[in-house]
Amino acid sequence: MTKVKPEDIAPRAETIAAADRLHSAAIHLLRRVRKQDEASGVGPAQLSALSVLVFAGPRTLGELATAEQVKPPTMSRIVAGLKRSRLIEIIRDPGDKRRMHIRPTAKGTRLLQEGRQRRIEYLAAHLGSLTASELAQLGAAADILEKLLSNWQVSPL
Amino acid sequence: MTKVKPEDIAPRAETIAAADRLHSAAIHLLRRVRKQDEASGVGPAQLSALSVLVFAGPRTLGELATAEQVKPPTMSRIVAGLKRSRLIEIIRDPGDKRRMHIRPTAKGTRLLQEGRQRRIEYLAAHLGSLTASELAQLGAAADILEKLLSNWQVSPL
DNA sequence: TATATTAGTTAGCATAGCTAACTATATTCG
DNA sequence: CGAATATAGTTAGCTATGCTAACTAATATA
To answer: Nearest-CA residue to the C1' of C14?
Structure first.
């Protein structure tokens, strides 16, 4: 009864197949939904960062970069774009002048929620053709994935 | 007994919730997996186009653009990059000199399969912490999604 | 206080998306 | 047949998003 770590287990055929199909489905799903987001006139990276700010609250630039799995210079430019469009505002940290706290403006919050609305309606219109059981399965899968992703340690390079 | 089209149905709360969680899970999953693909030294758009060529067979540039939901100039550049890296080769159509048939080289096929291997091992190592039941649910969800996506009519603009 | 660390920016490069305008080839129609 | 039209792909030029390297400014530490 030897104990093995996940990384040591040679993936079984079903695992491989599930991983592959999941990957493919995720790519194709996002391609479709992404098109809806274009209507907002804001790029995907900006939209995603804004979404963090709206749903998880204000963050510093570094925190946002970490949350979005992006390097600071990249986030710096994303934030600059959001600021130019007046979707966020920057509050200087009173205690540490190097830091900036970034938070959505009312306009930013509105834009994000409208986008969400649009995306949801689009997706839901298509999910509507599924049976209740299928829909439930998708919801369950999403939950399993999110749970999995939340303790998914990114190996330090 | 009035008949309604999917787009006319106001999405129910569960549908909205499922759509949202699905979208979020897909985004986060792909962010992780994408990192693995970087090891190939080929960008995501090139990798995705190459994958079509390897798994669905040779295609013209226009067909590839359609398959990848991208405009012809974009695909033109993606193909140029793949050619520069000698991952594909171009065969001129004998009957119509405007057309090009694009097919993977042995190197291209190898690179794609190695990438798939790497991605699968990575994903599978993490999926391995799931129970058999959870894994089965993910696989089922992927199938439902792919089925849904395959008859997902993109509304003509 | 001098040094090191941390937060964020700037510059410069590559990929990827778009539209508009182009070339070259095929097709259609008078 | 030949002119007009349609189709396949390319080129040029814009934006957005990713990176690394090198920088500034501020804070923390020795």
So the answer is: B43
Cβ <8 Å between A25 and B140 = no
- What's the whole-model pTM score? 0.83
All structural domains of chain A with their residue ranges = 40-149
Quick one: closest CA in A to B52, which residue?
Answer: A24
Nearest-Cα residue of chain A relative to residue B51: A24
DSSP B56-111: H--EEHHHHHHHTT--HHHHHHHHHHHHHTTSEEEEE-SS-TT-EEEEE-HHHHHH
Return the half-sphere exposure (C-beta side, CA atoms, 13 A cut-off) of residue A46. 24
Which fold does the domain A40-149 belong to in CATH? Answer: Arc Repressor Mutant, subunit A (1.10.10)
User: What confidence tens digit (pLDDT) does each residue in B47-74 have?
Assistant: 999 999 999 999 999 999 999 999 999 9
Closest chain B C-alpha to A95 CA, distance in angstroms: 33
Q: Is the CB of A52 under 7 A from strand D?
A: no
Q: What is the 3-state secondary structure (H, E, C) of chain A?
A: CCCCCHHHCCCCHHHHHHHHHHHHHHHHHHHHHHHHHHHHCCCHHHHHHHHHHHHHCCEEHHHHHHHCCCCHHHHHHHHHHHHHCCCEEEEECCCCCCCEEEEECHHHHHHHHHHHHHHHHHHHHHHCCCCHHHHHHHHHHHHHHHHHHHCCCCCCC
Q: Is B133 on the interface with A (CB under 8 A)?
A: no
CATH number for the domain formed by residue range(s) B35-148:
1.10.10.10
As a whole number, the mean pLDDT across chain A is 85
Kindly determine whether the C-beta of residue B41 is less than 7 Å away from any atom of nucleic acid strand C: no
Write out pLDDT tens, residues A127-138: 888 888 998 898
